[in-house]
Protein: Protein SOP4
Organism: Lachancea thermotolerans
Amino acid sequence: MTFYELSLVRGTKRVQAGTRRLFWTRRFDMLLLLFCLISGLCSSTLAATVSGRLDVSPLNITRKEVAHSSFKLLQVGNFTGPAYYSQTTVRDVHGNFKFEGVPEPKDANSSTYFVLQPSSLDYNLKPGRILVQLVRDPEDPQKIVTKAFKNSFGRENFPSPEILYPEKLAEVAADPCITFSLVNAAPFREYITERNAGILKSGPVASILNSKFKMAAVITAVLMLLFPYLLEKFDSETAQAIKDDRLEKQKRKYADQKRVGEQAQRLEKK
């Protein structure tokens, strides 16, 4: 075999090896792309979205509300693996926010639970805590239904099984979103002091009127002072008998004092 034929054979082998390498490389890239697509579809089907809205009407959403407000979502209840936790803020001027990639129930007979808690540096928001439940729609198992229950601090999310008639949490609207609003009396306070409040609002007369015990003592004293006059007006005979009794007691008292004085003088003379 000549040198030219040998070089041609070697070149042909190199081309065939490069073709095989390119074929397997493209095949590997296609498999990798297919795996990514399947993983994306699986992750999208195993994750749900919880939507909410911050309502500060009659005020408007500004940058201050966006910077000073936040929302936390924490997974609770019976679950396997690490607990889901996420924190988000308001996304637009309408106060909308949402949590994406929330674990959804595996089947129609199971549920996933989360605690949604608002936080604001400027306002007091209600409800203070929301128990979120994700279940599958009985008619369409691919559809996730979001339920929300209003809960207060200090109360358990799930009642103890030992309680025969546990108190149920009040359900709130969750479609299309869970709404948080302002506590009416909390943000607006009145810092005004009246200078001339009047005798009925400040002073000794006001203290008597505002105290039940002082009022009762005053009424009792007034009735005791008015009782003789009222008795004399409505029952003169009884009033006269009371006066005679008092006079008789005074006469006896003076007579006793006089008798004691005379006895003392006799003893001194002896």
Remarks:
- The CA atoms of residues 2 and 8 lie 10 Å apart.
- Residues 204-269 form one domain.
- Residues 39-45 have pLDDT under 50 and may be disordered.
- Helices lie at 3-45, 63-68, 204-210, 212-234, 236-269.
